[in-house]
Amino acid sequence: MPEGEIYIERRRHKRVEKRLKAYYRLISRNELDNDEELKKFKVESIDISTGGIQLICEENIETDNIIRIDIEIPIEKTFIETFAEVRWCRFDDKLKKYKIGLHFLVIKEDHINLINRLIKG
Length: 121
Fold this sequence. Notes:
Layout: E1 16-17, E2 21-26, E3 41-48, E4 52-57, E5 66-73, E6 78-92, E7 97-106, H1 109-120
Antiparallel strand pairs: 1-3, 2-3, 2-5, 3-4, 4-7, 5-6, 6-7
């Protein structure tokens, strides 16, 4: 950050570093017309909040894409299943993978409560 600039946190939701397994697939515009099973990709999270999640991924996913994501919550032996929008995607030279920021589009109240329990530890 250049000298003299002030960093202002823009996030509205508290975020916690959490390594969680997840599976995603891109939602195509004509998905309803397609009978074949769409490929799911296995990924891992970096952090999560009630507003979104950051993933480590092999693929470069363009912003504004909509994905279906299933996030494994091993302590509860359940999954958070929801839809999210890709807000940003950057290649990480250290990891040699992409980091992807997702914003949850819809999320159930019980999933919000589950994420809040993860945040509180």
